[in-house]
Write a structure and sequence with these properties.
The chain is of the alpha/beta class. Helices cover about 50% and strands about 10% of the residues. The protein has helices at about 5, 10-20, 25-40, 50-65, 95-100, 110-115, 120-135, 150-160, 170-180, 200-205, 240-264, and strands at about 140-145, 165-170, 185-190, 215-220, 235.
Length: about 260
C-alpha cells in the first residue's frame, strides 16, 4: 500500500494535533502541508519500521522542530487573533508529549517512539507538562453543554484545575445571556444543543463581541474536521478522557496568554 493511502485516514487528526500545538488552524495546517510536500519530494523520509499512524506523527514532529514555514501573515480565525508567529512561541516538548498522550491517545511507549526519546524520558516530559497545568493561572469558564451529566463532569474537571465556572448553558440563547452577565476567559462548547440550536453558532456570536479562547467537545468531530471551512484550534472527541480536556484547557490558555503578553 502506498504511503498516501496508509496515512490518509489519520490526516484529519494530525491536523487537529498540529492546530493544538501551534494555536491556530492556519499555522497548524501550514505545518501539515509542509510535511506532505516534504514526503512527496522524498518518500524515503517516512519511517516504515513503525505503524503508519506513529510514523505520520513522528515525521510531522521532526519537521516541526526544524520548519521554516512562514507564519508571519495575520490570520483571523473564528474571531481570534493569532498567537506569536515565531519558533520561540511554539509548543515546548513537554506539552507535545502531553498532547500526544492525552488528546491523541498514544501510549507512553508510542509517545517515546514519535518523539524519538526513551519511554522513561517521554513519561518525564508528560509529568512536567502536568505540573505546568497545575500551575496554570485561574480563569472564568463558560460551559455550553446540554447533557447534565457531561456538563457536571466538565465542571468538575474545570474546578479541579483551579478555574471558576461562570455558568452552564444548554442552548445558544442561554450562552449569550451568560456572557452578557459575566465575560468568560475560556469557553468549552458542544455542537448540538438542547433546543436544536448550534454550539458553533453560539460561539461565533460570542466571538463577534469578545475575544476568548474556545474548546469544542463533541461526539461529532468529523463535522469540524472537513477542511472546508474555518475549524477550531482545540477539539476534543466524546467520549473524552479527563486528561484530554485538561490538556486542551491548558494549551488554549497557554496560547491566549502568549498572545496577550505580545499585545501588552
Amino acid at each position: 500500500m502506498s504511503i498516501a493511502k496508509e496515512i490518509a485516514p489519520h490526516l484529519p487528526y494530525l491536523r487537529r494535533f498540529a492546530r493544538a500545538l501551534s494555536g491556530t488552524q492556519a499555522s497548524g495546517d501550514a505545518h501539515v502541508v509542509a510535511m506532505l510536500e516534504a514526503l512527496v519530494a522524498d518518500p524515503s523520509g517516512f519511517p516504515r519500521d513503525v505503524d503508519p499512524r506513529i510514523g505520520l506523527y513522528r515525521t510531522f514532529l521532526k519537521l516541526w522542530s526544524s520548519t521554516g514555514v512562514d507564519m508571519s501573515e495575520p490570520v483571523i480565525e473564528l474571531g481570534r487573533a493569532p498567537a506569536e508567529r515565531n519558533l520561540d512561541a511554539l509548543t515546548p516538548r513537554p506539552r507535545q508529549a502531553f498532547l500526544l498522550r492525552t488528546v491523541e491517545g498514544f501510549s507512553i511507549d508510542e509517545v517515546g517512539t514519535i518523539m524519538n526519546v526513551p519511554a522513561d524520558e517521554a513519561a518525564t516530559l508528560i509529568q512536567t507538562a502536568g505540573q505546568e497545568i497545575a500551575e496554570q493561572v485561574a480563569t472564568d469558564v463558560l460551559i455550553i453543554e446540554d447533557e447534565p451529566i457531561i456538563a457536571l463532569d466538565i465542571e468538575t474537571m474545570v474546578e479541579e484545575l483551579g478555574h471558576t465556572v461562570t455558568g452552564v448553558a444548554r442552548t445558544q440563547r442561554e450562552a449569550i445571556a451568560l456572557v452578557a452577565k459575566k465575560r468568560p476567559g475560556l469557553v468549552l462548547a458542544d455542537i448540538q444543543l438542547a433546543d436544536g440550536s448550534s454550539g458553533l453558532d453560539a460561539v461565533n456570536e460570542i466571538l463577534s463581541s469578545i475575544d476568548v479562547p474556545v474548546i469544542f467537545i463533541t461526539a461529532y468531530p468529523e463535522r469540524l474536521l472537513t477542511g472546508d471551512r474555518p475549524e477550531p484550534a482545540f477539539l476534543i472527541t466524546k467520549p473524552f478522557q479527563p486528561e484530554a480536556v485538561k490538556a486542551a484547557i491548558s494549551q488554549a490558555l497557554f496560547f491566549d496568554r502568549r498572545a496577550g503578553r505580545k499585545a501588552a
